[in-house]
Amino acid sequence: MNSSRLILLTGLVVVGISACISNESTEEQHEEGIFGKVELSDGWVRPGSEGGMSAAYLTINNGTASGDTLESISSNIAEKAELHESYKGENGIIGMRPASQPVISSGEKLHMSPGRLHIMLHDLNKDLSIGDSVDITMTFSRVNTQSIRLPVKSQH
Amino acid sequence: MKPTHFSIWIIFLLLIALASCGPETIIDLGNESFTLLDTDSTEVQFPNDYKGKTTVISFIYTHCPDVCPAITANMKNIQEELEDTTDIRFVELTFDPERDTPSALAKYKKLYDLNDQFSLLTGSSSEIDSLLNRLNIVAQKTQIDSLQQDSSDYFMNHSNTIYLMDKQGRIRTEYPANVVPPEHVSEDLQKIH
After folding, report:
1. For chain A, what is the radius of gyration of the CA atoms?
2. Residue B22 pLDDT exceeds 90
3. Quick one: DSSP state of residue A51?
């Protein structure tokens, strides 16, 4: 084997090894990166009075490859926003309690609706009338924050 | 008239009589009176001031963000379901007279765009408690963990009830307030109206 062939062969081997290393690096990124999206949709907010309360409803769709946990909620119009659930107790008595941080599995949706899971908006900083809009921001453990602007509507 | 024809006729008359009776009385308030306050702070004698009307009654409190507005929405749906609302009234009684002053209820009434057929009623705590007890309505204060620092910040566990009261002040039927289909209530209203 002459020297030029040796150099060419060495070059090919180096390129091949580099390609392998590069490919491994990309696979690592794929494992660590987040593909797909967590989407917020189908939301609305009840009217409310300044200093009072309201409730927001929406759907969270986890379109990523792994489960994710909703850690906290905030809103531009409320001092505090928390996930709560209404429930039916003994003798049909209705109660409400904070809901634990829900884990939304990959490919699953979390629906909020009147009389069930909802975002409680506490201590509104202004009156909310039909036609207004409200910003809701949700922080998840993996995809960080997701925001949505929701209309104020009356229930029918 | 042959005996068989006579029997059929009697059964027919009985069926008509039963159909016209409507549901049995659950609670008779006909001889009782409770002094309440309307949204403009005028005194209301309940149920006396509603005698001669058929009344749809529900129970709410204005610091309730989820279920009570759903109950109010259903009351409006019942109203919209009726072709003729002459001599029909809609009453929402508060579970929470401490915070639901007449002006707080007036705000709520405006917020949910309730018309003059709706009365939102409050009163002294003792009077409201007496009336709720008489109506078998449960309302219990409950603190939410994250809000326990402030004792004025509370929610309520409560009954989920709509009643129909006839023109004599008798409660004739009841429904699960936030989920009853409005057409079911409007059909029953026709029977006792």
Report:
1. 25
2. no
3. T
Name chain A contacts of B112, Cβ cutoff 8 Å. 47, 154
* Nearest residue, CB atoms, A118 vs list B66, B176, B179: B66
Candidates B33, B157, B41, B35; CA nearest to B100 is B41
CB nearest B69 (choices: A84, A122, A155) = A155
Q: What are A80's two structure tokens?
A: 């505090």
Query: To 10 degrees, what angle do helices B67-81 and B182-192 make?
Result: 50
Q: Which residue has the tokens 């009234």?
A: B89
- pTM of the full structure: 0.82
Residue in chain A nearest B80 by alpha carbon: A156
DSSP code per residue over B158-175: E--EEEEE-TTSEEEEEE
Q: Output the CA torsion sign for B87, B115, B131, B164.
A: positive
DSSP assigned state of B49 = G
Q: Which region among A13-22, B23-32, B40-49, B132-141 has the lowest average model confidence (pLDDT)?
A: A13-22
Query: Is residue B72 within 8 Å of residue B90, measured between CB atoms?
Result: no
Write the single-letter amino acid at A89.
G
**Whole-number Å distance between alpha carbons of A96 and A76:** 23
**Helix, strand or coil for residue A47?**
coil
Q: List the single residue in B73, B138, B145 with the smallest CB-CB distance to A154.
A: B73
Phi, psi values for residue B125, rounded to 5°: -60, -40
Which of helix, strand or coil describes residue A130?
A: coil
How many Cα atoms occupy the beta-carbon half-sphere of A86 within 13 Å? 27
Q: Is the ipTM of this complex over 0.90?
A: no
The Cα B66–Cα B23 span in angstroms is 31
- Residue B152's H or E segment, with its range, is none
Partners of A84 on chain B (C-beta within 8 Å) are 65-66
- Under 8 Å between Cβ of A99 and A83: yes
Torsion, CA B166, CA B172, CA B173, CA B178, rounded to 10: 40
